[in-house]
Amino acid sequence: MRYPLWRIGVFLAACVAPVWWVYQAWLLALGPDPGKALVDLFGQGTLVLLLITLAMTPMQKLSGWPGWIAVRRQLGLWCFAYVVLHMSAYAVFILGLDWSQLGVELAKRPYIIVGSLAFLCLLALAVTSNRYSQRRLGARWKKLHRVVYAIVGLGLLHMFWIVRADLKQWAIYAMIGALLLMLRIPAIARRIPRLKGQKTPAVIKA
Question: How far apart are CA 130 and CA 114, in angstroms?
């Protein structure tokens, strides 16, 4: 395994946030409704990890260090783990595990449908993130995993719908997401190696 210490560090860093949030909720330090706060934190954590995952390829292109790519799959799987925690917290603290209320929630809050679509897309990427799927799907694997760009849009729309009263934090995520997607445009991607003095242009891939 390449870069074992780096991989372990990323693993531990990804573990810290959910453990700390749950601990804070246990201490009632997340406000009057710690359950809802956990739902929001896990959701934001998912979006942040998604953006960090997308940043790995540009970072590798800019720095030339392969270690960024070495943890990209791990970060993607952590992103899926966070969205599972997000949905689990929603089921426990918002629905109270009363699934009969789900239809009412969907009618009142359509952004849940948008979030569910993003979850299904992340599920597809998580299930096919292994090397067996890469070999089995061949060229289709890259096409499938480009759905991550749509997931960014769905995640941002989901958050926008929730925090419409205060868009400052959302705007930061949206600008970062837009920048990372722009770096996938071939005409822009070909310029990145020149920033490091490299002679051979390369197109950033998903």
Answer: 26
Between the CA atoms of 3, 127, 90 and 148, what dihedral angle is there, to the nearest 10 degrees? Answer: 70
In the block, tokens 């890259």 appear at 142
Closest CA to 148 of 42, 54, 44, 14: 54
Please say if the pLDDT value at position 190 is more than 80: no
**In terms of DSSP H, where are the helices of 1-130?**
4-26, 34-63, 67-70, 72-89, 102-108, 111-127
* Pair 77, 16: CB distance under 8 Å: no
What's the mean per-residue pLDDT of the chain? 87
Q: Which amino acid is at 130?
A: N
CB atoms within 10 A of CB 4: 9
Model confidence, pTM? 0.87
pLDDT band of 9, cuts 50, 70, 90 = very high
pLDDT at 196: 46
Nearest C-alpha neighbor of 204 from the set 42, 68, 36, 71: 68
Least confident of 43-47, 147-151, 156-160, 186-190: 186-190
C-alpha to C-alpha distance for 156 and 181, rounded to whole angstroms:
13
